[in-house]
Structure formats: structure tokens, C-alpha cells
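Morning run. Coffee first, then this:
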Amino acid sequence: MASNRLAQRTRRLARPLAMILALPLACAALAAGPVAKAPAGKAAVAPSAEKAQHWSAWGGTVGIRWNRELAADLGLSFGATVGRHAELSWRQHEMFSLQNVGSLEFDVRNNNLRGFVGGALQASGGHVLESASGRIDLTNFQLVPRAQRAAGEAPVLDLVSADGTAWFYIDRLMYELIDGNSRLAVRTMDVRITPALARRLGAPEVADMAIADMEMTTDVQRQGADAAPQGVIARKWHGTPVPGVPGATYLADLFMTTFSAQYSRCDGCTGAGGNGQVVFTPSSTLRNNRNNGTPVVVVPGDPRGTSSALYTADIPWHQKFTGNFAPYNNDQHPYLIWNLYRLNVDGTMDQIGRSGVKHGFLTINTSCDENPGDSHILGRGCADVYGVGNNDSPNDLGPRSEIIPATNQWGRCGSIYDVNCDGIANSTSNGSYGQRLIVRESQFSGAAHEGATYLFESWYLARQDIDILNSVGTKRVTFSRPGTVWAVGGNDQFRLGPAIDRWVDPAAPGANASTQTLTTPEGTVKVAGKVTALGGGRWRYDYAVMNLDFARAVTTGAEPNLRVVSNLGLNGFSFPVGSATVTDLKFGDGDLDAANDWTGSVRSGSLTWVAPAGNALNWGTMFRFSFIANQAPTRSQYVVSIASAGNPKVLKGNGLLTPPALRVTRR
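And here it is:
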């Protein structure tokens, strides 16, 4: 049945899509306020110099996928459910009908939805939530737009209960007009807890947390004579010549602009220093390069915030299994990953959590400099956002082993979504913990890590992106557990670049640190080191090796029927230690499993760490290496070994701080 439902959904999605919706989104959480009541009339909007073309929508279906683990943490249980459809949606939403009464009104210009202007939609049926603080009856709930306080403000819907109170609100909407503009399809939107509900539950720290994900498809009635753009839009794919500029081509350069991290669920949590497995999930925002012949800042105040590509390429954004499209003759789309790091009090850094791969599927193209007119192409200067609920969607996540990261190709054949390689998606079983970023409580809390700080890293990967270092960003995060959930605080100090660059800054590494980027056709690796004088003629040497996107891929077939047999990264790290006495060898891979640790040994004046089978340093991953020596550092060459056969067998670098190499006397 799941395959049949997906096939039906895929046929609908493969129909010609209408123009992209250019509704600006914001990522900041809403400020705490009083309990929202359903407005009596239409929501007010800021005046516009342009005459609005009002459209309206009603009927159809709405689906909700609750984070039931988070709800249980908060003491919310699910009582009666009324009017639920027999089958779940592809993304496992529980589906309900929308009544053919009332309408949701929105503003359209040039076939682009610009904002909600009033009205409401009402469901047939819904859930009843029970808690010690009282019942919330969401039977026949309403979706009511909040008044936009200014032009371009992010759209927010209140989820209004049967008693007229909104204990939840909805943001991060991703949507498009489909089927010849006859339907409005909201593919995903976060359902968040209002500050008032958080106080009622006795957990103010959960205000604005996403507790569910919703989708909606509703029928549209056009009102007014909106003029759609005419003609065929010339696509500006990566490598396409720029008209009138000899030698210039459009280049892909995608930017991370901001993100925030949130607690999603835990298996066996007991609190600080415990052994529970905690899931954290980000909401991430991106923007395409803005350049059209001259440099334009994308991320203000960041040294990586302006692209070196003077002409911006369009970026394809097609959902998996929806067909084969230009320019790669496949369903190309970006991918997201995220990681968590601990900066230890002793100055070392460990990667303690890493996600699977989130498959992108739609871009809403907000705040564009040049809108491509297609919700599956990111245009020049266009922004997009993926919410917490969507990044936690079981059927949009997969393993990193299916991706060739340097080329951003997905091996669909043999993947968890197409096991038998027939081009038709099969159902998956990721559940609530598969492919998520999972970290043990003991790794980010408790006395053992008193004084440590933490960095969350979020990364978009787009095909042929010329600068992967501005597609990744980091933020400082903090953790507390005042009640029954882990609250993520901080979410500040955003900076472009990987977390390893926050440990050793490439712009100013200092005399006792080193960092180098190894760039190859198969991907990029960063190697950084620090040396700390311990006194008494002893020095501690700490290294971090970050495999950004290096993989020696073994494949069969070709796109769109590509199979990734393996995509291993690195399996060795070696450098000179000369005649130094080396002690206290330590290795960190963040998994708390000593059985798969790399082993270090000294031979012929070199210290070499070797990976056991099954624990290569694969892409998107950082390992730590440390030891103590009785000699001061000098700068030397080093070698990282490649896990798969082929040439070259190793990558070589220079300038690493190590004990002095042995001198060879020639006679």
C-alpha cells in the first residue's frame, strides 16, 4: 500500500508545476505573548503600493505528524481521534479532511503567493490532547492567519482549538501552487508550542519548540486578473556561458545563512551525566549567491559572506522519484547534514554527534534578486528554509554512505528508498531514531564535562558548489534540563565555516597551532593541530582531522540509475615524532565504543594511527588524536591514508606541529 500511495503522489507531483511562491520566511522564534484567540475577521496587513490580487482556498486535506515522544515528555497524551483517514501520507502524517466552509485568503502577484490576508480553514476531525493541566480539544481545529505586522514578515498560522484558543502556532511553511494553480500545497510546516501553553505545562523552557509537522493541500479559487509572466525563462545552470561576457560562466555557490537547534526526543533520559540517547534537530536557512557581475554580500559581517563567483548559477531542487530533469538528467537536489562538537576544558575538541542525510525537495524562493519561476530551482539571491519537523521527517532521511559528497550524487539504486533499483520508492523504516543526530547525555552534560562549550554545525551540500566552506555554519549552543526535556540554549555566535575552524582559525592560527586544507578531485580534508606546554619539558600535541567531503567512491551504473557500492574516506594518519618519548596516546571518534578506536604506534621515528575495519574517517566526520611528548614542536610533513584502493594511496600535507623528525646522517 505504501508503494501505491507513493506512486500516486509521484504522478501528481510530476505534473507541470506553477510559478514559485515568493513568500518571505524568517527564522527567528516568536516572542512570548498571551494566548492567541481566533480573530473575528480578516487579519490586517501592511499597506502596499501594489494592488493586491486576492485569491482564496478551501477544502482538501490536512495532515499532522506529532512528535509523540516530545509530547509524552511534556505530559501530553493522545485521547480521542475523530475523522482520521485510514491511510497515512507519504511523510507519515495522520490525514484529515478540510471542510468546504470558510476560506483561507492570500495575496498573489505574478502567480506568486505573497502572504495570507485573512479567513480561516477548518478541519473535519482532529485529536484530543490530555494533560494534568487540562484538555486541549483539537477536534475540527482551525488554521487562522496571524496579522502580519509589516510587509515581508514571515507568515504564521494559529492552530485554534475547539474553544477558540490557539495553544499552538505554525511557521516555516514550504508551499507551492500545483496542478495549473488549482491547488495550494503546503508540503511542510512546523507546529510550535506557544509560550502560554509552555507555562500551563509547567515547562516554560519549551516555548516555541516544534512539536509536530503539518502538510496541507487545499483547492484554490482565483479572484482578480493576475498577470503571469510570459515566455520561457532561460536557465543559468553551472557552467553555462554568460551572454555578452566573453569567458564568463554561471557558477553554483550556495550559502548557509543561519540555523537553530532543538531537542526532539530521548530514549532513556535520566538527566545530567546519564546514558539516554538524545536527538537534536536543526531548522536551517540558506540563500543562493547574489552576484550578477559585481560582488554582493550574502551574509553580512562574515569574512566568507561574499561569493567569489561573479555570476550566479541556478541550483536544481527536485524531490526524489519525481522524474529526470535538466541539467543532470536526474532528480538532483541538495542534501543537509548536521554535527555536534564539544570544546573541552583542556583545549581539545571532539565531534560527539552526527546526523544522516536529509534529502531536499522544494524551495520557496523568498527574497529573490531574480526569481526563476519554479519551486524546484533556486534562483539568484533566493532564500529557503527547512524546519525542525521537516528535518525530522523519517521518509526524507538517509545514510551518508549513499552520497558521493564531492560531486553531490545520490546512489538511488540500492538505497534505502529503492532497494531493488526499479525507480519506484519503497517504504522505509527509519522510525524516530534512524538517521538522526544522536548523542548520549553523558557526552554533553555532567561533572565529567564541567566547563566545556558546544558547537552545532549545519551544512547544505549542492552539486558543483564552488565553495563548500560557506555552505556550512556553526553556532554555540548550551544544554540544560530544568524539567523533563533537554533545552537547547545559546543558538548564537553564528559563523560560516566548519567547526574545526573555530578550534584553529585559519586566518590567525597562532604560533602554537597549525591548520591546512587538502583539496583533491575526490574531496576536501582539513587537518589542524595545537601544542600545549605542560611544563617540566613535556608538551601535549592535539590534532583534529576533518573529512569535509572526501570519498573514494566505487559505483556501478550511471545517473539516474547510479549505485554507490562504497564511498570510504580515510584510514590512517602519520607524522614524525623523531626520538621523542611519546606517552598518553588518545583517540576520539565520538561514539563511546573503544572497540573500534584507531590504534597508534611509534616505529622508525613516526607515529601512525590506523583504523580498524569498519571505522574509516568518512565524509562529514572529524576524529581527534592526542599524545604527550618530551620534545618541543617543529613543523613537519604528515600523511593521511585513503581507505580504498586506487591512486593516490595517501594525501600529503605540510606545516603540522610535531616533535622534530629524526636526522639521517649520510656517509
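The chain has a mean pLDDT of 89. Good start to the day.
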